[in-house]
Every structure is written in C-alpha cells, then in structure tokens.
Design a protein that fits this description.
The structure holds two protein chains of two kinds. Helix content of chain A is 58%, strand content 0%. Chain A is mainly alpha-helical. The longest helix of chain A has 41 residues, at 17-57. By secondary structure, chain B is mainly α. Chain B contains nine helices and no strands. Chain B has helices spanning 15-24, 28-50, 53-69, 80-100, 123-127, 131-140, 143-154, 159-166, 170-191. The chains are: A mainly alpha, B mainly alpha. The A-B interface holds A 1-16, 19-20, 22-24, 26-28, 30-32, 34-35 and B 2, 26, 28, 31-32, 35-36, 39-40, 43-44, 47-48, 53, 57, 60-61, 64-65, 68-69, 124, 127-131, 134-135, 149-150, 153-154.
C-alpha cells in the first residue's frame, strides 16, 4: 500500500504564544460576567425563599422533622 | 471578593477529573491545563480545515471559549478530547459554510446493498493522490467532505469516534466517507489533465 498522503500534508504549526493569553483573558471575562449574573440572581432567589420560609414558620410549632419538640430548659424563678 | 487566590492546579489529574472539578467551581487556571494539553491539536485541526493561519487562530480561540461556556453540558460519556474535537469540527464546518455560502446537498443515508464490502472502496486510489496536489483537491471539496477525509485519514479517528463527534449513525458516517472519497477522486481527475 502506498504512503498516506494525508499524513504528509498534516500541519505541524504550533499555535502562537499570544493565543493562550487571548483565550485565558476571554475565559476570565466570561467568568466575571457569570459571577455578576449569579450575584444578582442569587440575591433575588434568596429574598424570595427567605419570605416563603418565614411565612411557613409562623404557624408551625418548633420541632424536628418527626414533629417532636425539643425539651425547653426549665424557667428560672 | 470575586476572585480568590488559589493554589496551582494539579497537572497530574486526568482531563475528566479536571472537567469534573471545573463543573463544581470555575477556575481559569484549571482550564489553562486543558488548554495546554489540547491547544496544539485543536489549532492544527482548524488549520487543516481552513488552510489559513489567522483564521485558525480565531477559530481556536472561539472553540476554547465555547468549550468553557458549555463545560456543564459535558456528561462524561465520551472522552473530553472527543467532545472537544466534536466542537472543533462542528465549529469549523459552521464557519466555512457561512463563509463560503456552502449549501449541503441532501445525502442518501440508507445502507445500500454491497456497501459493507465497499467500505474501503477508492481508498487505494485516494492514497495514490500526489501529496502536492492533495491540498488543492481538499480546498476544492465542500467543508463536510474535507472534514470527513481529514478525520479519517489525517487524524486516524475510528468510525465510532467520528460518529460521536458528528452525532451521526454508523451507516451515515460510512456513506458520507464513501461520498467524500468519490468526490475527492473526481476533483483529482479533473486536476490531473491540466498538469504539463
């Protein structure tokens, strides 16, 4: 079988050094944008869930998941 | 504080371990390890597809950014390299299609009788193409055919890997490969009479 000509024309060039800086710069920019979005989204989500949790707690007795109440320390007279 | 100073990432981790950690927390330094491992291959694939160094640089840049943005979609079923090369080929194809206003012709993808025996049909003829004419032949093919031939004969990816990279079935890959070989030989035979 003859030599594979595709192997002969295969590029052997290396990517330029500045490309690494360009790519990592863009990656850091993407991370920054994502973190800003997360910051604002987290704030809204937090405020919504905080309200739900507080509203739900108002009428519920204090206790664990099985409904057992924790023993309260005796009141001092 | 938005960015904390972190310890240097461990270079001994496998690609998949690095991706798993990146999926938990984004870290540019950890992604840089993947860049260092794959940038040459991705750049050379882009160069093979485009034959243009500046364009290959731009595409390599975009491919790594796209891979970073889509890391959460990597489901660890394939190797990270296969997943990245899939982005590479598809991104290059999309770019070349837009650039050359290429419109793909519908390809019959059902398995024809006798296809199995003819899987390697035209391979010997393809390998007999003069290497100094091969670049010319490839540049005259449509990008999808060029990608097929480069994946198979330059990068020596298996049919299974090509299936994963292009999201195609086995018979579709074999059929497209056969068509790509046929078209390459047609172009070669058109170029040959012009030779002195």
């Amino acid at each position: 079988m003859s030599t594979n000509p595709f192997k002969i024309i295969r590029p052997t060039d290396q990517p330029p050094e500045h490309l690494r800086k360009d790519v990592m710069g863009s990656i850091k920019l993407v991370m920054l944008l994502v973190r800003f979005v997360q910051l604002f989204m987290a704030d809204y989500a937090m405020s919504i869930f905080e309200n739900v949790r507080l509203a739900g707690r108002r009428d519920q007795p204090q206790g664990d998941e099985q409904g057992r109440t924790k023993p309260q320390p005796p009141e001092r007279t | 504080m938005l960015f904390k100073k972190k310890a240097k990432p461990d270079n001994t981790l496998s690609d998949e371990e690095i991706v798993a950690r990146l999926q938990q927390a984004m870290e540019a330094d950890r992604f840089a390890v993947l860049y260092d491992r794959y940038s040459t291959k991705v750049f050379q694939k882009c160069l093979g597809m485009t034959r243009n160094r500046e364009l290959a640089q731009d595409l390599t840049h975009d491919i790594f950014v796209k891979a970073f943005v889509n890391l959460s979609k990597f489901d660890h079923r394939a190797k990270f390299g296969t997943w990245l090369y899939s982005i590479t080929y598809n991104y290059c194809l999309d770019h070349l299609r837009k650039d050359q206003r290429y419109r793909s012709e519908p390809i019959e993808e059902e398995v024809h009788e006798g296809q199995e025996e003819g899987e390697d049909r035209y391979e010997a003829e393809l390998f007999a193409i003069r290497f100094d004419l091969l670049e010319d032949v490839l540049s005259r093919l449509d990008p999808a055919d060029r990608a097929m031939l480069l994946m198979k004969y330059q990068e020596e990816h298996s049919v299974k890997e090509i299936m994963e990279m292009l999201g195609l079935g086995e018979s579709a890959v074999k059929m497209r490969m056969l068509r790509a070989r046929e078209r390459a030989l047609q172009v070669y035979h058109q170029l040959m009479p012009a030779e002195p």
